[in-house]
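Exercise: predict the structure of this protein bound to nicotinamide-adenine-dinucleotide.
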Amino acid sequence: MILLTGGLGYIGSHVAVELIKQGYDVVIIDDLSNSEYSVLERLSELTDTEIYFELGDVRDITFLTGVFQRYQIENVIHLAAKKAVGESVHKPLHYYDVNVSGLINLLKVLEDHRVKKFVFSSSCTVYGQPDQLPVTESTPLGDTPSPYGKTKQMCEQILESVAKVAKHQIVSLRYFNPVGAHHSGKIGELPKGVPNNLVPFITQTSAGLRDELKVFGGDYSTPDGTAIRDYIHVVDLARAHVKALMVDLGAHIALNLGTRQGYSVLEVIKAFEEVSGIELNYTIVERRAGDLPEIYGDPSLAYKKLQWKAELGLTDMMRDAWNWQQGLAK
Ligand SMILES: NC(=O)c1ccc[n+]([C@@H]2O[C@H](COP(=O)([O-])OP(=O)(O)OC[C@H]3O[C@@H](n4cnc5c(N)ncnc54)[C@H](O)[C@@H]3O)[C@@H](O)[C@H]2O)c1
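Solution:
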């Protein structure tokens, strides 16, 4: 049985599907703070499988202990966390509490149980603004201005220390920019309020839910002046979690999950317009505080260790994101 925390969220729901496809039994923990119960129903429909679900908070150690008593858990994939960079500036304690205390609680409970592997959702934000691109896992961790980024750095440091004494192996997966949705259109990203990320903003604008798309910054030192990111299809990302369970990786390893290919905001907009046939209404506005001009990652270590690489391209990401958005309107 795999314990998947945050499994009703955007990435977690896709990880659940890939795990079930590979024959794993899954129990999801989620407090529904950023997801909906209907995702569980859609997951069951999509996989035609019973998925165990425990409603609760990873900060609640009694709850976590109960879950470990009720299920025979062999591996843990820990995704439950707060993830909005901007919000973390305004609610730093909440971010440290959920992201750092949540991790510590889970690790404490694991001390009394034998699991094989602990997979952690990290982020490329741990690199801060790197001097050289693409970033590799040996790129030093940089100054990351947001409390969110700091929580991910702290979590990795905690995991590094714990790995020296733990019986389980630990894998920190550093995601670049996950986008897209499952091709079925049954699961995808469900941002609450105004989206912080480009692709949901694009799809919501195209669906008429937002008046116009704001492109933050047109004067970066990139070829077209807009910021460059390493977008990765969420299904590719999810598959890497399954691979991470299958191979021996030593006490603790951090792996970049990206594509090595950076795309600018304008390139993403163009790809979306081509896929959807919709011309986007966008305006270039001031840079957003804390945004990096450019980042993309070298995923070759993940290939070497997991035999994993991203298979889906920007067109797939845009097609699936749009398909998901259109389905939401029905
Ligand atoms: N989406 C990205 O761009 C991105 C990039 C890098 C890393 N990550 C990390 O990946 C993980 C998953 O991100 P996501 O995009 O799927 O986010 P998400 O918000 O869609 O999913 C997180 C899930 O965790 C649940 N949750 C939050 N706090 C909880 C708590 N205290 N107890 C139990 N459940 C809780 C939420 O309800 C939600 O279902 C997070 O750790 C995030 O930091 C995400």
